Amino acid sequence: MDATNEELVYSRNRIRHNILPQMKEINAQAVLHMNQTAHRLWELREYLEEETARALEGCRIKRRAEVPVIRAGVAEASKGTADASAA
């Protein structure tokens, strides 16, 4: 056991010894609810990281695919302008 667990100079100990007991008086399942919320937030964070990575990869693929199309369009437009100037 950590010798500092009883010292109230540390925030974690003030929470453990003062706040959590008061919360349990208000709602006996307060700690359970906090743990459930923490778990849900962890799952949400994992989901958002996965979706962000997937969206970012989608953007990279689209950019690579669009660049040649844009270049081809510009080349064709330039060629058309040059043809019109020559006429």
Summed over residues and divided by their number, the pLDDT gives a mean of 80
The 3D shape can be described as elongated
Distance between the termini: 91 Å
The major sheet is characterized as: none
Instruction: Give the proportion of residues in helices.
Output: over 70%
Number of helices: 2
Order of helices and strands: HH
Report the structural category.
Answer: mainly alpha
How many distinct beta strands? 0
- Strand residue content: under 5%
Low-pLDDT regions: 68-73
- Cα radius of gyration in angstroms: 30 Å
Summarize the structure.
The protein is mainly α and 87 residues long. Helix content is 84%, strand content 0%. It is elongated, with a radius of gyration of 30 Å.
What does this entry look like structurally?
With 87 residues, the chain is mainly alpha-helical. Helices cover 84% and strands 0% of the residues. It is elongated, with a radius of gyration of 30 Å.
